[in-house]
Backbone:
């Protein structure tokens, strides 16, 4: 399993936690904090955290005690009102997950947004922070509400505040995933609720604390913030068209929660930028935006969140889970897209300088 690429020389690597779940969260202590998870708005624009540098091991090795669950690459000086997040590109699999699943590495990694953090690695060089999860979504999904859990996965009853029914949970893709791609079950046995608390409080929450801090700092500095939430999608994904038939989704899907998470001018600008680079771009179908986009996208409060889904076949071998020559090209195009947002300002008439 590949480790994170070295940080660009003109960026500062930091994290939002003094340690990972192994040394920073005692399971019993974590259970005492679950009341913070009530409701969806568990992370507002007010939390702060410390920073410290760290490294990362490959898949199959227990992370060192000092490995935090979130990696933040800060520019030497932030010059863009942009924050880029990558909640699903983490590829450092905790030992307790590896001990509980019988899946092989390829299957376990099938739901990973492999190398997306590398596609957007130019953000710090351009003047924008990049916030990435180091843990995989199959362990705990940072793009879900904190407590969306399937009761059938647990050996003990779940507290009343836990969300136990919605479409994501029914599909096996709650905060703790029941399945990976192609509906393959992750676990042969059941988990305890304290396992979920450990993951949510020790991994999910530090990621959102770091993301909240980056957004709030950016908004305080520039008067607004553009959040680009970066993801990837399988090449075989299709969507139903107006004719009732299935059609390929194209190369890139932009999700703005159907116009509610950001200015439509922002969506239009990134759509043009990517279209001019030769990509087939769709809006909101089949990906309108997950928890990150819905939760942080508050244009009335000066935060404009846009989800970007990139077709994996453009930059990687989806069967081997390896980079292809296309990664360099797509990364260069994402660099140009981020740079192209530099003059967007929702406070201007039409919100655009084009």
Residues:
């Amino acid at each position: 399993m590949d480790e994170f690429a070295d940080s660009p020389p003109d960026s500062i690597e930091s994290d939002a936690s003094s340690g990972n779940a192994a040394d920073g969260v005692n399971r019993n202590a974590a259970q005492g904090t679950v009341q913070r998870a009530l409701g969806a708005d568990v992370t507002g624009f007010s939390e702060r955290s410390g920073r410290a540098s760290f490294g990362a091991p490959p898949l199959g090795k227990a992370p060192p005690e000092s490995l935090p669950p979130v990696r933040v690459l800060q520019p030497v000086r932030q010059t863009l009102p942009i924050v880029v997040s990558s909640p699903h590109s983490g590829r450092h699999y905790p030992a307790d997950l590896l001990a509980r699943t019988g899946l092989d590495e390829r299957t376990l990694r099938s739901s990973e947004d492999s190398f997306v953090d590398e596609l957007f690695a130019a953000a710090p060089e351009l003047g924008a922070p990049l916030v990435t999860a180091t843990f995989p979504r199959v362990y705990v999904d940072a793009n879900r509400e904190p407590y969306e859990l399937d009761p059938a996965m647990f050996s003990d009853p779940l507290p009343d505040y836990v969300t136990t029914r919605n479409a994501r949970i029914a599909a096996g893709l709650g905060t703790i995933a029941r399945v990976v791609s192609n509906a393959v079950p992750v676990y042969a046995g059941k988990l305890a609720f304290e396992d979920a608390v450990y993951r949510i409080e020790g991994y999910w929450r530090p990621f959102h604390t770091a993301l909240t801090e980056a957004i709030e700092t950016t908004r305080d500095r520039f008067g607004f913030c553009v959040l680009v939430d970066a993801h990837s999608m399988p090449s075989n994904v299709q969507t139903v068209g107006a004719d009732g038939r299935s059609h390929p989704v194209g190369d890139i899907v932009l999700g703005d929660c159907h116009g509610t998470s950001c200015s439509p001018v922002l969506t239009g600008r990134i759509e043009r930028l990517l279209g001019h680079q030769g990509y087939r771009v769709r809006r909101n179908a089949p990906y309108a935006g997950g928890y990150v986009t819905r939760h942080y996208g508050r244009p009335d409060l000066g935060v404009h969140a846009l989800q970007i889904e990139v077709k994996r076949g453009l930059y990687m071998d989806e069967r081997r889970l390896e980079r292809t020559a296309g990664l360099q090209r797509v990364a260069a195009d994402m660099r140009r897209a981020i740079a192209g947002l530099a003059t967007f300002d929702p406070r201007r008439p039409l919100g655009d300088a084009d």
About this structure: Residues 231 and 309 are 5 Å apart (CA to CA). DSSP finds eleven helices and 14 strands in the chain.
